[in-house]
Specification:
11 strands
Length: 208
């Protein structure tokens, strides 16, 4: 009987060890290695569990460029920390080892400052491109996008009656190597067909 008890205890111990080993392996493979690549404008990121049902997001950690972490497979959001950047965050999924890049656009407030300072240069670019037509038009509703290198404009007749607007043209302009370059031809409505090579979001915002 004593020998049988020892055998049963041994078998139970082996089963328990196997179960623990299986659970340990399963737990290990429920995590993945994530490496973070941050743009020069980002000093660090705060990573949170992207749990929509939670009242408060669960902070996972703070990471700098090139740092790595083993995260449990699931949904996360990385909120960048820096000056004059959009800090709304980047959503990402973890299910395998991967690299997550965080390269935010500038903040709306900063882009508004860029628009104010760049308006004379953008007007000059249109005047150079269309010297005859632009003698009767001016640049209005200037919006700068992204990292300050794309802009949308509304070209309006000089002295136009704002109560009865007409002959309004929209245009897109891109800053290349420090110089604003007019993209395509100003249109009443910009589309992917008549203004090629421009992101849909930029066209949509310029058309508003």
């Amino acid at each position: 009987i004593c020998t049988m008890k020892k055998t049963i205890i041994l078998i139970l111990t082996i089963v328990a060890v196997i179960i623990l080993a299986v659970l340990g392996v399963r737990e290990y493979f429920s995590y993945s290695s994530v490496t973070f690549k941050l743009s020069p404008t980002v000093s660090s990121i705060n990573v949170y569990n992207n749990d929509h049902e939670a009242d408060q997001p669960n902070t996972v950690g703070t990471y700098k460029n090139g740092s790595s972490a083993r995260l449990k497979n699931g949904s996360y959001i990385a909120k960048p920390v820096g000056t004059d950047i959009d800090d709304s965050g980047v959503n990402f999924e973890v299910g395998r080892d991967k690299q997550v890049s965080v390269d935010p656009d500038f903040s709306g407030a900063y882009l508004a400052k860029v628009a104010a300072s760049e308006q004379p240069n953008i007007l000059a670019a249109y005047q150079q491109k269309y010297p005859t037509i632009m003698s009767g038009y001016e640049v209005n509703n200037l919006q700068v996008f992204g990292k300050g290198d794309w802009a949308g404009v509304l070209l309006t007749p000089s002295g136009m009656d704002t109560q009865n607007p007409e002959n309004l043209y929209r245009g897109v302009i891109n800053k290349k190597n420090g110089t604003w370059v007019v993209i395509g031809t100003p249109r009443l409505v910009l589309t992917l067909d008549n203004t090629k090579g421009v992101d849909r979001n930029i066209l949509t915002k310029t058309n508003k």
